[in-house]
Amino acid sequence: MGMTAVGLDVGKAALNLAVDGQPGVVRFANTEAGMGKLLRHLGRLESPRVVLEATGGYEEPLLEACGDAGFWVARVNPRQARKFARATGELAKTDAIDARAPVRAALYMATLSAVRWDPTMRDHYQQLRARGKLG
Predict the structure, then answer these.
(1) Do the strands 4-10 and 48-53 form a parallel or antiparallel pair, or are they unpaired?
(2) CA distances (Å), origin 56, targets 42, 51, 93
């Protein structure tokens, strides 16, 4: 069984999806309906490994939706993802590049289960956030 690396750039209004081996970026509205379409799109991929950047909370609904749907999903620090992209030669900054950077991270982290977001930890994350200990 193979794995498909997927990167998501999450913004207030849009979700930009990049899939390893596929040109371009697919854009979805950052709404409940848009997330539904994105999840159906992910469901057509072979074992998607989804990596998205922390974006001050905009990523939370998508992170939970992916986890609840049973997808492997990880949230990464945007600064580290950007440095990772630079280290692989991506020096510019665009929505497409922002979506592609987590694809490379997904390829790297595909076997690291320690970074996977765990939906059973939702209450713990919320408690940490309430105390100001989690971005």
Answers:
(1) parallel
(2) 23, 16, 19
| DSSP structure string for 67-130 | HHTT-EEEEE-HHHHHHHHHHTT--S--HHHHHHHHHHHHHHHTT-GGGS--GGGHHHHHHHHH
Token couple for 30: 């950052």
Give the tens place of pLDDT for each residue, 28-66. 999 999 999 999 999 999 999 888 887 888 888 999 999
Buried b (16+ CB within 10 A) or exposed e, 84-108: bbeeeebeeeeebbbbbbbbbbbee
Tens-digit pLDDT profile for residues 5-22: 888 888 899 998 989 888
- Which of helix, strand or coil describes residue 48? strand
- pTM exceeds 0.90: no
pLDDT tens profile 94-135: 555 556 666 666 655 554 544 556 667 777 667 766 776 555
- CA contacts within 13 A on the Cβ side of 98: 17
